[in-house]
TrEMBL record:
Family of this protein: Belongs to the Nudix hydrolase family.
Cofactor(s) demanded: Mn(2+); Mg(2+)
Name recorded for this polypeptide: Acyl-coenzyme A diphosphatase NUDT19
Cellular component terms (Gene Ontology): mitochondrion
Region spans: Disordered: 321-344
Residue ranges constituting the Nudix hydrolase domain according to the UniProt record: 34-276
Function: Fatty acyl-coenzyme A (CoA) diphosphatase that hydrolyzes fatty acyl-CoA to yield acyl-4'-phosphopantetheine and adenosine 3',5'-bisphosphate. Mediates the hydrolysis of a wide range of CoA esters, including choloyl-CoA and branched-chain fatty-acyl-CoA esters and at low substrate concentrations medium and long-chain fatty-acyl-CoA esters are the primary substrates. Highest activity seen with medium-chain acyl-CoA esters and higher rates of activity seen with the unsaturated acyl-CoA esters compared with the saturated esters. Exhibits decapping activity towards dpCoA-capped RNAs in vitro.
UniProt enzyme class: hydrolase
EC numbers on record: 3.6.1.77
InterPro entries per UniProt: NUDIX_hydrolase-like_dom_sf (IPR015797), NUDIX_hydrolase_dom (IPR000086), NUDT19 (IPR039121)
Stored SUPFAM superfamilies: Nudix
Length: 386
C-alpha cells in the first residue's frame, strides 16, 4: 500500500452496470426500492436497458452509515502481495499485466495511479492492485465474482472488446463452495489469492475500466480521508447477488435515474460522488453505448476530484477542480479563493440538505470525459454523439 500517503487511505470501488430487458419484474432485479413516507412508488416510465448495483452500508458503520454506495472498500496489503505474480504468471512480462496503456502524462496522473509501487516494495503495479481490490470487495459485499478461467485460450486478445467476462454464480460453482470462499475472503482478504489459485481463475482486471478518482474533503466525513479509484464494468446480464450481512444490509439493481429519484424522494441517501457519477451515467440509456464509451475513454486518464466545501447562502457548496473559486493548491485548503484564470467557470455541487443536491457546471471536462446531467431525473441519450 502507499505508506507515503499519511493523510488518507487508498480504496477502490466498482460501478457495476448490467443489462436487462425493458420492462418490470425481471429475475435478480430490485424494483425502486424502499418504502418511504408514502410507501413504495409505482414504477415510472424509463428507457434505460441496464441497471446499476447499489449496496446499503450498515447503520453501525463508522463511515457513511446507511448510505447507498457502489461496491468497494479499502485496499489491503494482500492486494499488492507478490503471490499474485504466480496467479498472473502468463502476464507478468506485459506492462501492467496486460492492461492497456493510459495516455495521460504521469505528472498529471492522480497520485493513486501515479505512485511508483515498486519503490514502495510492491512487485504488483498499482493499477493492477487497485482492480484486485475492487473485485475482491465486490465479491465480499455482493457475492458477485468476476473472474476468467486460466485455461481460456487467447485471453488478452478476447478482453479488448468483450464485456465484463465470466461471473461465477451458484449455478457454475457449487453453492457451498462459493459460500465457503466468500466467508474465507471476508475473514481474511489474503484468502482471495488462494481462492484464485485453487479455482484456477484470474480476477478479471481487464474488464474494469478507469472512470474517476475522488478524495474525501478535509474533515467532512471524520478524521480519516479516503482516496478512491472508481472503475466501471458492464455485464450483459444481472448476476446473482447477496449482501454480506456484515458491512452491507441490503442491495438493489436499479437504473441510474431510478436511484437518483429515490434519493430525491428521500427514500435512500447517496453521497455527492455517487450523485455525480450516476448523473454522468444518465447520459446513456443504452448499456452498449455506455460500454463503448467506457472502453474507449478509459485510456485517456482521469482527474482527481478533491471537493472543497464552503457554506454560502444557507447551503453547502462543494467546489470541484475548474471552478472559478477552486483553490489552486488544495492540499490543506479548507476554504475557497478567487481563481483569476477561470472567472466564469462553474463546477460545483450545491447541497441544501442531505436529500437536496443540484449541480452547476459550465466547464469542459478533461480527458474526454462526460459532464453529469444537471437535472438527473431526466435521461440524455448521447447515442451518435460519441
Amino acid at each position: 500500500m502507499n505508506t507515503a500517503l499519511k493523510h488518507w487511505r487508498e480504496a477502490a470501488t466498482l460501478i457495476l452496470a448490467a443489462g436487462h430487458r425493458l420492462g418490470d419484474g425481471l429475475p435478480g432485479r430490485t424494483a425502486p426500492l424502499v418504502s418511504g413516507r408514502g410507501g413504495l412508488r409505482p414504477p415510472r416510465h424509463r428507457r434505460f436497458d441496464y441497471d446499476v448495483l447499489m449496496l446499503q452500508r450498515s447503520g453501525k458503520s463508522g463511515f457513511m452509515p446507511n448510505a447507498y454506495v457502489f461496491p468497494g472498500g479499502v485496499v489491503d496489503c494482500s492486494d499488492f502481495s507478490s503471490d499474485w505474480l504466480e496467479v498472473f504468471k502468463p502476464f507478468v512480462d506485459s506492462p501492467n499485466f496486460g492492461l492497456r496503456h493510459v495516455e495521460q502524462p504521469i505528472e498529471s496522473r492522480p497520485p493513486i495511479f501515479a505512485t511508483d509501487r515498486l519503490k514502495l516494495g510492491s512487485a504488483v503495479p498499482g493499477e493492477v492492485a487497485l482492480r484486485i481490490c475492487a473485485l475482491r470487495e465486490t465479491f465480499e459485499e455482493s457475492g458477485v465474482l468476476l473472474v476468467v478461467s486460466k485455461r481460456e485460450k487467447g485471453l488478452l486478445k478476447s478482453f479488448e472488446e468483450t464485456w465484463g467476462g465470466q461471473h461465477y454464480t451458484e449455478d457454475e460453482l457449487s453453492g457451498a463452495e462459493l459460500t465457503k470462499w466468500r466467508a474465507l475472503v471476508n475473514q481474511n482478504p489474503s484468502n482471495f489469492v488462494q481462492m484464485c489459485r485453487e479455482l484456477e481463475v484470474l480476477p478479471n482486471i481487464w474488464a474494469l475500466h478507469e472512470w474517476a478518482n475522488w478524495l474525501t474533503p478535509i474533515k467532512k466525513y471524520g478524521a480519516t480521508r479516503f482516496d478512491t479509484a472508481f472503475f466501471m464494468c458492464c455485464l450483459q446480464d444481472i448476476p446473482h447477488t447477496l449482501q454480506d450481512e456484515r458491512e452491507i444490509e441490503g442491495f438493489q439493481w436499479s437504473t441510474p435515474s431510478e436511484i437518483l429519484r429515490s434519493y430525491q424522494d428521500r427514500q435512500l441517501w447517496i453521497a455527492p460522488p455517487q450523485f455525480y457519477e450516476l448523473s454522468r451515467m444518465c447520459r446513456f440509456t443504452s448499456l452498449t453505448d455506455l460500454h463503448r464509451f467506457t472502453h474507449q475513454r478509459a485510456t485517456e486518464g482521469c482527474e482527481q476530484f478533491t471537493p472543497v466545501v464552503v457554506f454560502k447562502d444557507e447551503q453547502y457548496v462543494s467546489l470541484l477542480p475548474g471552478d472559478k473559486q477552486y483553490p489552486k493548491d488544495n492540499s490543506e485548503q479548507t476554504g475557497a479563493e478567487k481563481n483569476p484564470d477561470t472567472d466564469s467557470a462553474l463546477h460545483r455541487i450545491l447541497i441544501s440538505d442531505p436529500y437536496t443536491t443540484t449541480l452547476q457546471i459550465t466547464i469542459t471536462p478533461k480527458y474526454n470525459h462526460l459532464l453529469p446531467v444537471e437535472e438527473p431525473g431526466l435521461s440524455h441519450d448521447v447515442n451518435g454523439q460519441l
